[in-house]
Design a protein that fits this description.
The structure is a homodimer of 507-residue chains. Chain A has helices at 25-47, 55-67, 78-91, 111-123, 134-151, 166-180, 196-204, 222-231, 254-263, 330-333, 335-339, 357-392, 414-417, 421-437, 470-473, 475-494, 502-505, and strands at 159-163, 187-191, 211-213, 215-216, 219-220, 237-242, 267-272, 296-300, 312-316, 397-399, 408-413, 444-449, 455-462. Chain A is α/β, with parallel strands linked by helices and 507 residues long.
Chain lengths: 507, 507
Amino acid sequence: MSAGTPPAPGAQGVPAGLLAGGADGPGRLRDLTTIVLDALEDAPRARGGPLPAGGPGAVALSTRALCSPVLPAEGVGPEAALADVVRAVAEGAADPADPACVAHLHCPPLAVAVAAELAGAALNPSMDSWDQAPAAGVIEELTTAALARLVHPAAPAPDALITSGGTESNLVALLLARERAMPGPLRVVTGANAHHSVHRAAWMLGLPAPTVVACRDGVIDPDALDRALTGLAGAPLLVVATAGTTDEGRIDPLPEIARIAERHTARLHVDAAYGGPLLFSERLAPLLTGLERADSVTFDLHKLGWQPVAAGVLAVADAGMLTPLSLRADYLNADDDTEAGLPDLLGRSIRTTRRPDAVKMAVTFRALGRRGLGELVEHCVRTAHEFGEAVDARPALRRRPGGIGISTVLFRPAVADTLPEEAGDAVVAAVRRILLAEGRAVLGRAVAEDGDGRRRLWLKATLLHPNAATADLLPLLDLVTAAADRAVSEAQAAEGTQAPGAERLSP
Amino acid sequence: MSAGTPPAPGAQGVPAGLLAGGADGPGRLRDLTTIVLDALEDAPRARGGPLPAGGPGAVALSTRALCSPVLPAEGVGPEAALADVVRAVAEGAADPADPACVAHLHCPPLAVAVAAELAGAALNPSMDSWDQAPAAGVIEELTTAALARLVHPAAPAPDALITSGGTESNLVALLLARERAMPGPLRVVTGANAHHSVHRAAWMLGLPAPTVVACRDGVIDPDALDRALTGLAGAPLLVVATAGTTDEGRIDPLPEIARIAERHTARLHVDAAYGGPLLFSERLAPLLTGLERADSVTFDLHKLGWQPVAAGVLAVADAGMLTPLSLRADYLNADDDTEAGLPDLLGRSIRTTRRPDAVKMAVTFRALGRRGLGELVEHCVRTAHEFGEAVDARPALRRRPGGIGISTVLFRPAVADTLPEEAGDAVVAAVRRILLAEGRAVLGRAVAEDGDGRRRLWLKATLLHPNAATADLLPLLDLVTAAADRAVSEAQAAEGTQAPGAERLSP
């Protein structure tokens, strides 16, 4: 009956060697993970760059060739299926471990965290009851306690939940605020720089659309916030600020926002999905001063934390805030079981069955320590500043005036400035698409204020690579310059019949 | 600039060999996954059973010893951190690959799916934009198309989304119905047998609490449903039925429910998180007749699909139903990018950053084929029936009267029937806790109607092991009989001062 007893091979006609667990599971996994690692090793050469060349049409063709039909009547066996599908995913990846992959808050994961994921997947604990996750539950408790203490070091009873990412963290933060504000309705006030998930959460929860406060230089204008809150006086209020905006990496003025929120007896949530990990670095943590005054904080470790997705966190200043999530389901946390000492885990999430994402976080934290993590964050911030200086040194490029937000650099080819407004922006967009279609670089895009106060389109480099040297990043600048020249010629040739770069992406 | 160029080792003081990707990533992963596989191989012996003995207190102590402090100032290095934390998780696991682990819809994952997870984690595609997941997006499209066609074979334009599990699938189903019902409010009508996530979803979405319809023999009473819908006439209505209830594995009478819903112009959602995979088997699929008439269907592959969590699905009869999820976020799906041919993936989820869960599903589907998956489902159903017969053959046990729901068997020790009602239920609960505390078995519990119409507590065996023979499961019955005798003696000795079995679980 113990796990040491292997099931009879082929019992009742079902194949042996099927499972990841049990006596022969790890041996079987050794064979199969070798197939995966071989495919991962071969892929970069076959891909020939940070992403496959040819655009969506070409990638769809090659992927379908390896993976169709995806649900055949008869199987092809584990080895063939793994080799083909993993090859397709790897050869067709936008590889965040390539220094030219800088579009998004899309990090290259740490090897140690990925290895830890393998253990979680093989054991498959589910975090909704003790009897599905005896030890994994304890590890989650240790991990969330450490994160809670990191975010709210002086609070008497801070707590934190593991989520599927910033979007879920923001949703739960608004849900908790909504319940606290009953009979409500809660009014949410946020900056024009906030992530779309704040608006989506309000919509899902049946709340009035958030009031949007104007920004100055990419961050909330405190006077505008003050006026907005005054205008809503009497309603229960939640201010949502951002520490690390998606477009510019900017941090809202948290101490001032906390003061204003307090004056209006508004609650404060800070979306620090991007910026939160600055707390790991003693040198950079002061950038987040004021965060500790937030009632709740979104914090993500699949951005500046180098975890494979998912690794979201919602930290709260007081554990009592989580009460609305309490739930009784007899099969998971019957009263008599809880009284008899079985921990009740059901109120720790809006999900039920739930992955042991805390395990990879715990392994990473133990492996690197707070200092090691802080150094990786500092590396990204430093390379971003060096990258920004390199942009400034090139006449063919122009960096957006103003500082660099965390590790995000906005710039555009100078040639775009020589064109009429709309044509200039079209060239910027085309540069991104040309480099994507040619498989050379994955750059992001953002609309942001220029020095003259006008909003223009910029290329965005979000530098999350924890050990690429600045020198590894510089070829990106040559690629952009060359692509901009091509985009301009193409635009002239096409005489405006088509968005530049489009033909490369069409199937 | 290509992935083939390794970053300078130790560049700027940051350690080399850090990442899972890039030129040396797979090699590094080979070393680290070996540590994981060794720990997984050793753990069952150290654990000595399906879960560790000693209850929550003992598990907390041994886990803390290996994992504290979880966030030290200085790291201990990847090797030591992995070895310790994975050892803690594995030795402290409730291992679903052990045939004595039958409490929940908590499946032992397939080796091939776990190996595929490794690829997903290493490459870390995020499914919210093409430039983070070029090939993984195509694989998701193929996978959801196949699942959509499986659930709604005759619909002109069926579709499906990948979710984090049944709870998210039910939430999105209610959200889509709410939006369609605008200005609403939508009234949800569901059975007393529905999963708690239906109620939770209504609460989150700001909907009135669902109207609960009485059940007969564990399934919705169609007459009661008809009356409930009549009582709500005029309101936009959603009926939520269940195909595979959590407590009993029962399937609501779908054809009749579909007819009644249609007559009241109510929409129909079916939560088939447990039962959905019966569709893989030609022999068993007829049990789900009527499912194809549902507007939306929750379907889970981390139950009868043997995937590591998460592997949730929401299938819809018509792709147009998904329109309310459409969202524009300039950095992910700007209009000009979409016009230029970049696929827009943002409307495929309520999450933003999102794991490539479709990859492991695709690998599993290709490996086993529909036939192979169907055989595994049939195996579970067959062993459940044989297990039920074995219960019936033992005078010391009594199976709940009536049929077996999918692969769920409810039974209780006969000695519990000799005691007053409450004391009898207390013995049933104690048996479960004794076996948990001694590390011998993980049985579930459910309150369900007995032959005399009274609701009693039962032990629940949810048989999801795809290749344990029935003979591997029978020792569970001896364990239950012996534990029941001990529970009765302890209850008599304690003279009711404490719930039986409680002292074993307290720290």
